[in-house]
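Anyone else keep sequences and structure tokens together like this?

Example one:
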Amino acid sequence: MIFGRIFLVLSLLLIGCDEVRVAPKPDPVPKPKPVVAKPSPSEESTRIKSYYASVQARLLAQGKLRQEHSPADAPFTTADLVRNFERVALYDEYTNEEGVFIEEQTSSYLRRWQKPVRIGLHFGDSVTPGQRAKDTKMVSSFAARLAALTGLNIRVTSLKNANFVMLFLNRDEQRTVPLQLSADTPQLLPSIVREIETSPRNIFCVAYALSNADSPTDYSGAVVLVKAEHSDIMRRSCIQEEMTQALGLANDDPNIRPSIFNDDEEFALLTKHDEILLKMLYDPRLRVGMTPERARPLLRAVAEDALKSNRI
């Protein structure tokens, strides 16, 4: 909406023998706009930021958070890919029981996106303009990489046009922003809002993938939370892992290597192994809704073709 300003102009008629000159009034000095100070992070959020920095430093000192794309000390075979794909794509790490997410490994179905993915970002006030620019650039660049690997139409758009919502919030903002956004952001279901509001500090970041009731294996939406207290490597790691998992590689497994789909934090960024799993997920020979039993006979050929692909 465009607003216009209306000026009322008065003409002064001077009558008399003497000429009267009226000194022009100086232009009014514009009043400075009040500066609205951003709320300072709470002590809790400050402690969480310090905690995440210490975790990152400790992991790096342990030789973790590695950033190699193809680590020489972690070779894998076609058989590894078949086994790892089944664990990551055909099992669930969590189950939703009456609106509460419970950690439990369960056999599931193949799920993925079959429509364009439109990513909308929302930053809490705690995220500086400079950091917002960096995060947006990282998300856009990684979205292009995911599109090339999957064949999906993926791009960044405005929040109101998004079906894939990414929130960058500190602890204080987690308690208020999701509920505020939920009225205009249908992906923020009440159960997801509650989870974000109460997410503990040991959950570094999280993704929620959504499907329609009439097509439960076809993803139609997603919500990703990146804790704004993170910096550099762990922040980038959260972006890559959660965006990838929200495309259908939803599970973590302690025996998968080299991979970000492993809670030991050995690798921070998407590896060649993970890219192959993603290509396998979007291979047209696999169908949404497949159980492990139905998909298993096809997986070796799918893995071999993905492994040989020149685009990897």
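And example two:
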Amino acid sequence: MLDESQWQNLINIYEGNPLWLKIAANTIQEIFGGRVREFFKYEQLYISEELGIILEKHWQRLSETEQKFITCLSQKMAPISIDKLLTDTQVSPQELFNAIKSLGRRFLIETKMQEQETLFVVLPIFRQYVVSSAEDLEKSHYI
């Protein structure tokens, strides 16, 4: 692959996941002749059909509470607090804490510290999957 200065950006976007990076690298090679910079011109969070299938399997393994939590987080661009999550998801603190622990172990969310508050955010590639899936579902209801 070309554009070595963009490799770290690619690694960050795909969270260093070897399989996800391999899928992205194959796409970059096949469509853009290995030019990472050109790939980034169009869409940084490309989810191929193959990667979509993998992410769908992750989604299907989540509990209803975890799916609710991930969906809520995915709708927000900025990290969100536990208080806001409790309000938005309307689950008990225990359910939310269990979901946070489970999703953290699965590397689907990140914890961020801001001042004296803990905030949460969905990993970018999984967020893109959730948002795209919701949009596709919405579109199918209008057809």
